[in-house]
């Protein structure tokens, strides 16, 4: 082996010049001389021949992902007729059902235990608190909102599976409660349940705190960092009320070659099993709705389970390319579908898989999922609806 070559660069400093539009990266040359370059983006720096170990590491994987997404785009551009579009749709549906989300077939409703039922005449709803069984005997707390007077009347109403967002309170979060109640007051039967490690399904920590809260509110010796004798909850510590425990069990599942997304989808499918067998629900008129983490699960479920006739996906939909460019989202384990880009799929394919059924996408300008990515993804999915022609045609 020949002599080792000296490094041609080593980062010394990276800082912004006051009043300038670009960052200045200083590099040390092997002879001790300094070079400076002004570059505005990572690509700009690389094109000018400047890089750091961190930049190279990031860019290596980003370039591979971008190349995989370019191959996907090329395949979409080859869809020149309806036959090709329908074939691509079938491929996408099967990929999400079997490769990425391991969706189950519809089953007989699991055992359901009624914990409590009460009526709220002022709001016009009857509320049932239940437990139902899902994978490996897991008991899932859930709530069913029914417009008063419907139970026992012989009526069959449309129903909505309301999937809570990524909040520690689960279905009991006040904002989630507003949506469930509002839908019931408008004539829908609504079922909502606690996602894994949220609400009554908290798995780690005490007093409602989870791993993230404990890690950020304890001292180096492992005790509470406050004068209190207990670990504070997220709200007590002034932290966002989001559960981070999904990453804990999600990474454990990777050791088994599985993903947390499978568990989330299995819970939602078992909830559908319960919902469609309620005597006052029309099983042909079931929809799903969710925001943020609930939007993610709504998109997953809508792509793999044909029982979901309509979906409303809020604050989740975008494209992987736009999300990589902005770098604003810190994904949890259930949001990572192993090999999705490698196998030629992106988020818009979840929409394409469910065409031509009604699908609403809700975007906002101040979300970690970039608005432009949502628009781009919607444009990519639109041809799959257009191939079916106008509704009712």
Main sheet: strand order:
4-5-6-8-7-9-10-11
Using the coordinates shown, work out and report the CATH topology of the largest domain. Answer: Rossmann fold
Gross CATH architecture of the largest domain? 3-Layer(aba) Sandwich
Number of strands: 11
Oligomer: single chain
The general outline is globular
Number of helices: 11
How many discrete domains? 2
* Low-confidence runs of at least 5 consecutive residues: 1-22, 24-31, 216-229
Could you give me the name of the CATH homologous superfamily of the largest domain?
Alpha/Beta hydrolase fold, catalytic domain
CATH class of the largest domain: Alpha Beta
Largest sheet: 8 strands, mixed
Distance between the termini: 72 Å
What is the strand content?
15-25%
Helicity level, as a percent range?
25-40%
Mean pLDDT over all positions: 81
Structural class of the secondary elements? alpha/beta
Q: What string, H for helix and E for strand, traces the elements in order? A: EEEHHHEEEEHEHHHEHEHHEH
Gyration radius from CA atoms, angstroms: 25 Å
């Amino acid at each position: 082996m020949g002599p080792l070559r000296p490094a041609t660069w080593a980062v010394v400093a990276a800082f912004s010049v006051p009043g300038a539009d670009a960052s200045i990266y200083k590099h040390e040359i092997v002879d001790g001389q300094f070079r400076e370059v002004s570059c505005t983006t990572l690509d700009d720096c690389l094109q000018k021949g400047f890089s750091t170990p961190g930049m190279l590491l990031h860019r290596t994987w980003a370039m591979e992902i971008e190349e995989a997404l370019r191959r996907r785009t090329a395949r979409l551009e080859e869809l020149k007729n309806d036959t090709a579009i329908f074939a691509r749709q079938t491929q996408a549906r099967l990929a999400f059902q079997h490769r990425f989300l391991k969706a189950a077939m519809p089953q007989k409703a699991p055992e359901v235990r009624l914990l409590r039922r009460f009526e709220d005449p002022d709001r016009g709803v009857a509320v049932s608190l239940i437990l139902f069984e899902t994978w490996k005997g897991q008991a899932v707390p859930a709530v069913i909102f029914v417009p008063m007077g419907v139970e026992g009347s012989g009526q069959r109403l449309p129903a909505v599976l309301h999937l809570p967002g990524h909040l520690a309170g689960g279905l009991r979060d006040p904002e989630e409660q507003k949506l469930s109640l509002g839908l019931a007051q408008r004539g829908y039967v609504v079922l909502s349940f606690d996602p894994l490690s949220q609400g009554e399904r908290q798995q780690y920590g005490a007093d409602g705190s989870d791993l993230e809260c404990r890690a950020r509110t304890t001292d180096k010796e492992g005790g509470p960092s406050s004068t209190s004798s207990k670990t504070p909850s997220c709200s007590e510590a002034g932290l966002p009320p989001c559960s981070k425990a999904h990453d804990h069990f999600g990474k454990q599942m990777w050791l088994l070659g599985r993903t947390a997304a499978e568990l989330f989808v299995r819970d939602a499918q078992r909830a559908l099993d319960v919902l469609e067998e309620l005597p006052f629900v029309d099983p042909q008129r079931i929809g799903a709705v969710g925001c943020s983490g609930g939007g993610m699960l709504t998109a997953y479920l809508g792509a793999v389970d044909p029982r979901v006739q309509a979906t409303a996906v809020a604050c989740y939909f975008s494209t992987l390319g736009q999300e990589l460019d902005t770098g604003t989202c810190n994904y949890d384990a259930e949001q990572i579908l192993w090999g999705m880009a490698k196998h030629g799929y992106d988020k818009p394919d979840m929409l394409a898989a469910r065409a031509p059924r009604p699908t609403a996408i809700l975007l906002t300008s101040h979300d970690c999922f970039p608005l432009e990515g949502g628009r781009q993804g919607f444009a990519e999915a639109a041809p799959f609806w257009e191939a079916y022609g106008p509704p009712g045609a």
